[in-house]
Amino acid sequence: MLHTVVMAGGSGTRFWPVSRQDLPKQFLSLFGDRSLIKQAVGRCRTLSSDERTWIVTGAAHAVETGRQLPDVPASHILIEPCGRNTAPCIGLAALCLLAEDPDAVMLVTPADHVIQPEAEFVTAVERAVATLETSPEKLCLFGIVPDRPATGYGYIERGESLAGVDRVFNVVRFREKPNLETAQDFLDAGNFLWNSGIFVWRADTIVRELERLQPELIAVLNRIRERLGEPDFAETLEREFPHCPSISIDYAVLEHSQDVCVLEAPFGWDDVGSWSALARLHPKDEHDNTVLGRHVGIETKNCTIFSSDDHLVTTIGLDECVVVHTENATLVAKLDDEAQVKELLKAIEAAGLEAFL
Amino acid sequence: MLHTVVMAGGSGTRFWPVSRQDLPKQFLSLFGDRSLIKQAVGRCRTLSSDERTWIVTGAAHAVETGRQLPDVPASHILIEPCGRNTAPCIGLAALCLLAEDPDAVMLVTPADHVIQPEAEFVTAVERAVATLETSPEKLCLFGIVPDRPATGYGYIERGESLAGVDRVFNVVRFREKPNLETAQDFLDAGNFLWNSGIFVWRADTIVRELERLQPELIAVLNRIRERLGEPDFAETLEREFPHCPSISIDYAVLEHSQDVCVLEAPFGWDDVGSWSALARLHPKDEHDNTVLGRHVGIETKNCTIFSSDDHLVTTIGLDECVVVHTENATLVAKLDDEAQVKELLKAIEAAGLEAFL
Predict the structure, then answer these.
(1) Which of B14, B289, B296 to mutate to test the interface with A (most CBs of A within 10 A)?
(2) Both A260 and A351 in a single domain?
(3) Mean pLDDT score of chain A, rounded to an integer?
(4) Among A250, A270, A290, where does a domain finish?
(5) Structure confidence at residue B337 (pLDDT)
(6) Min CA distance, A317 vs chain B (Å)?
């Protein structure tokens, strides 16, 4: 049976001031009429019911996760006491759902990506599941065909097609986030895909690979798994999980495994990593402004404006800026300086204004 | 006796969104710890007590005026049913205070200018009053020594010194708001002063000049004066005042009178006509930003930031911008486009968002 594991560990710094420490972007409805985590669970619902859905999140976000996803069993909302990157997160989920279904296939997906249309996503996952039926040892990941030389994503160099399966390829190698020149080379070469962070594999396969490649990690996770269903499970999880090494599933397993294959995604994908995603994913007005909420502008172009119906943002003479208004904080930034949002948040902390983070 | 007449007819568009239709800039504490109208009355208090203070304002602002100036007699707060520029305003006040004091000297001052230090202002007014004691027919106005080629003010070309009085000059002519080139010529010539809109004269003198030069206007005002102290005074004022021609005291009288003299002001003066005044009148930080309220900036310079203690404004990569946050509206503008605030307010109205004006 297919189970969905939603990784919801996001900390919510990039969409500040809309996202906050206690409200990271998976909970926001910046893209569509539902939050990103509701969209993530929703698009998997025809593949695996809520009863076969698992969420891995942090303690700070457990309550909001439970509220936004009332139909996911409470025992399926796994609380990481601290962030340890994706390998411990995925390993823990794999062990937990194996206990419920020894034959489980896992669809692993971040909680905070935009994927459209849903039907194409469902078809693609079904194609991955079909691949596993003939090649159960495979670790399938979705690769996105690049449309620009993005420097913010990892790339996958794809090799030859898997025999008899359309748009599924062996992986030659993983490539870390490139500089702009290398990213352009990848784009020109035509055989590079973005690593979407969306995976499909059998739970027993990934556990076996973790046992082989990350014995230390799996030892910690096994101590947690032993208490599954026991009164001290939560306590054990809280005590043991921090002993996991902090490592991504890519570094921990995928880059060392011979069984990885990449499916060229037929769906639109955006990791909505910064405010510029708002402009990519919403229509623009006649001056190429992207506006959510009330706005009146004079000589304003190529700007992204975010406000609400009851707060009017006005702009005069602005070009390529983002203006974001929330109840207790406002951000005004030149769009190409978005990476500095992290620097800004450090400066806010340094100024003793943590209450605004 | 010296009486103070405060002209408080401001409509409050230039400091939007802090100033609003129902809260023009004379009521704001943008400059100092008291509102501008409180400062205006306060600096005249040693010259003329609250009992000899008159305020001319609009109906929309009568309540707030009364609240901010609880010690000014209610009968001295004259309500214009509509704006008719300064000549009707000053003529009305002159007639009203002549009824109380036939020997009255009037100090006429706008409610919304910044003047510092107060002591210099008081001394200057006393000097004007002394001038009137020897030359009671004089119409004295304060001229400000320009420190930049401002294009937003009227200029006064001064002539020779009045015999025996220091820094008081005859007026050669009034010059309308110049273009930048002409303003630079004025600045270079050294014998031009800004027209501050602050006047000192005997009430009977200005009435006589209005009778001579604006008989139509004074006829309307006399119909109002006749009902002074009667139950139907307010009703008469409301009915008759709109019949006044809309004309400034400069056009109506000063430019045609032979008795105008200009006193070079020894005090600092700013008409705080736009957001750039905030930068002129407040200290700058090490990046030449002027900040009121909470702000954290990254690569931000030459900006003016206005917020409050409980709303954090953040900026990244901004230069020469003004960012103003208020509870229900935000303005982000390139500083050199400030004149466009009026255009912006029209656009807000056109968008059906009058509630934000």
Answers:
(1) B296
(2) no
(3) 94
(4) A270
(5) 64
(6) 6
Are both B166 and B313 inside the same structural domain?
A: no
Strands B77-80, B53-58: pairing is parallel
pLDDT at A338 exceeding the cut of 70: no
A332, B337: Cβ pair inside 8 Å?
A: no
Task: Tell me if the pTM is above 0.80.
Answer: yes
B356 in contact with A at a CB cutoff of 8 Å?
A: yes
ipTM: 0.88
What gap in Å lies between CA A319 and CA B317, rounded to an integer?
12
Last residue of a domain, one of B253, B270, B287: B270
Q: B316 contacts in A (CB within 8 Å)?
A: 331-334, 337-338, 340-341, 344
Please tell me the distance in Å from A147's CA to the nearest CA on chain B: 28
The residues, any chain, with a CB within 8 Å of residue B100's CB and separated by 6 or more, are none
Q: Indicate the residue of A299, A310, A332 with minimum beta-carbon distance to B332.
A: A332
Give the pLDDT band of residue A105 (cuts 50, 70, 90): very high
Out of B15-19, B57-61, B160-164, least confident range: B160-164
Q: Assign B134 to helix, strand or coil.
A: helix
On whether both B233 and B308 belong to a single domain, the answer is no
Regarding whether B343 and B210 lie in a shared domain, the answer is no
Domain enclosing residue B201, as ranges: 2-270
CB proximity A311 to B under 8 Å: yes
> Is the pLDDT at A273 greater than 90, yes or no?
no
In A12-117, alpha helices (H): 36-44, 62-68, 86-100
Q: Looking at the structure, do residues B246 and B329 belong to the same domain, yes or no? A: no
Cβ A111 vs Cβ A6: under 8 Å? yes
Tens-place pLDDT, residues B46-86: 999 999 999 999 999 999 999 999 999 999 999 999 999 99
Residues A282, A262, single domain; the answer is: no
- The answer to whether residues B296 and B235 belong to one domain is no
Alpha-carbon distance B200 to nearest alpha carbon in chain A (angstroms): 40
Can you read off the two tokens belonging to residue A228?
């599954």
